Amino acid sequence: MLAYIIGVVLFALGICISVALxxxxxxxxxxMFGMKVRRYFIGFGPTIFSFKRGETEYGAKWxxxxxxxxIAGMTALDEVTPDEAPRAMWRFKxxxxxxxxSAGSITHFILGFIVLYLMSITMGLPNxxxxxxxxxxxxxxxxxxxxxxxxxQLSDTSCPPGAPTPAATAGIKSGDKIVSVAGKPTASWTDxxxxxxxxxxxxxxxxxxxxxxxxxxxxxxxVQRLGTDGKVHEVGMMGAxxxxxxxxxxxxxxxGIGATFSFTGDMFAQxxxxxxxxxxxxxxxxxxxxxxxxxxxxxxSVVGASRIGGEAVEQGLWQIFFFLLASLxxxxxxxxxxxxxxxxxxxxxxxWYEKVRDWLRGLxxxxxxGPVDYTKLSAVTMVLVVxxxxxxxxxxxxxxxxxxxxQ
Length: 407
Known about the structure:
Blueprint: H1 2-33, E1 37-53, E2 56-71, H2 94-121, E3 125-126, H3 128-132, E4 139-142, H4 151-155, H5 166-170, E5 177-181, E6 184-185, H6 189-198, E7 201-209, E8 212-220, E9 222-226, E10 232-236, E11 240-242, E12 248-249, H7 255-289, H8 302-314, H9 318-336, H10 344-363, H11 378-401
Helix pairs in contact: 1-2, 1-8, 1-9, 2-7, 2-9, 2-10, 7-9, 7-11, 8-9, 8-11
């Protein structure tokens, strides 16, 4: 239980640090271009402490949920003092404002990349190819079929005297590819296991050996084995194994860079796909709240992600912990760039709308138009805020009453 609590706290802390660095990205780039940064705070609510260095006030607040960066004149409607007016953000070039507003998401991308790179040279990156392609039913070796009702017995690969060796006795050899068991085609090793574990006694098995198909009969015994659910089950065993690709691939400091870039590209594609599928998964979240089975592919809140992170630490699955943290950074980064107010992507869209509009006006010999009136967009913004708040409430509720759990 203690490990679980530590995992939840560590994951929540990782998220808070990520969001705080998101705001730091805005602050650093704004200062770099000469914009006036009034305040940079970590957290929300009442102030714990603050201090002023130069023209910026820094501090922390009691509610550790992110933070904020107050840049003077983010829009032309923001009030600025006479001394701030020349350095108001809206007066700067479009590309500079775009860099500042996208810096938060870029920070998330950098953080995600760093986490994945450190994984690549320590605990390894998930083997996507192995996860996406079925394991071929090619025999690597044969052994005995014996009971294993404890974790210690499972890790013991020795064969006690007199233990049956069904596969070897029937003539199965290393390199044979199993094409069918009990008349059922077996395209993958998973197919083989499903049929064999349900079988009992003499069972016909066909294997491909070189250019020939060899038909054999394996006398499959029923033995007691410890399952992944922690319970003992009686299953059929033939005493044979295949080559299982590693779940994680390890790299050195140099090869890890290329592997991380490649893996990051795959994650961006997956993130984009999840965003596209996001609306259609909301009904499943609602169903889970009212007692339906929780689909592991449904969206999770920060609460749900922290719970999964806690379970990963409790079970010693640090790879899942860090992979989830990197995934969340990528998701937040991409989501924040959606062209919707009040997200940074919405502000970027407005800035570039002004740029394109003034360019078109220039082609027609007209003067540049004024800044976009954000008050006209307030109704749309409020609707999106309400929708976003509703989705957040749904996911948090589902993560409390019916959370996604690691198997």
